[in-house]
Amino acid sequence: MRTMLATAQSGSDFQALNESAKAAVRDVFSRLSISGRELDMPPMGSGDYKALDGNCVAVVISGHVSVVQGHTVIGVFDGGDLLLPDTNVIGPGSAPLRYGSESGAHVRLYQRDQVESAIASEPATIEAWNRALILQITTILRLNALHIRETVGEGLTTELFSAGKIIIAQGAPADDVFSMIDGLAQVLVNDQPVAELRPGELFGTMAALMGSHRRATVRAIEDCKVVRLPKDHFFELIRSRPNAVHGLLVDMASSINELNEEVVRLREQLNHTTNA
């Protein structure tokens, strides 16, 4: 198991923990007298990733399976890792995690109810399952901590903006890049709304990359929690962690697409008004 930006820096202690987690998964499924069905994930872009069946438990057989929330890759799983789709357990209004592979992967799916029944039949299997889950959770927690240290490091600040407050002002110097942690914000160009920003999205990147002043205003629609990263630190992150570029490009492409759609909508409105 890996998370974006947190692969080669994890050290031998993590590698040993990761292998223990995989061994625990193998041990559990070697005890179960159930069969799974094979799923081939062809190479695809993140925009084509899909939620897995919430009635299944999955194990990665080969390749790398990426997990996406919104436009952000939040984890990459490889052979031997356990996948637990959240489709049937998340609350209303929440989008499930989506899974896919840029280079292709092979996954085995098991019916969740069959897995649960088989596990419950033997105390030793229950213990093995609990051990596998604990190791998986422990691995994810350690990777998350490493991910935060690597992507943030020194110089990061977390800021709160109440609804209506300006996060970025059009025309201001682009000294920082931002990531939306929680809340909803609106992007305005010349006081005209053109897009919205949601948790997991980077913003302020275009002006920082181009060395220009801010081309848009970002205003909090509801209370927002954002991470502010100085642009020099952001550039160093891109240079030292090339995998970060993927998520950045996805976010920027999404922003451009939203702007293009808004331009088309405004042009159609103008044509309708002119012809009326």
UniProtKB/TrEMBL annotation:
Gene3D superfamilies membership: Jelly Rolls (2.60.120.10)
Domain Cyclic nucleotide-binding, residue spans: 140-255
InterPro entries, per the entry: cNMP-bd_dom, cNMP-bd_dom_sf, RmlC-like_jellyroll
Keywords tagged on the record: Coiled coil
Organism: Luminiphilus syltensis NOR5-1B
Residues in coiled coil: 249-276
Pfam families, per the entry: cNMP_binding
SUPFAM superfamilies: cAMP-binding domain-like
Name of the protein: Cyclic nucleotide-binding domain protein
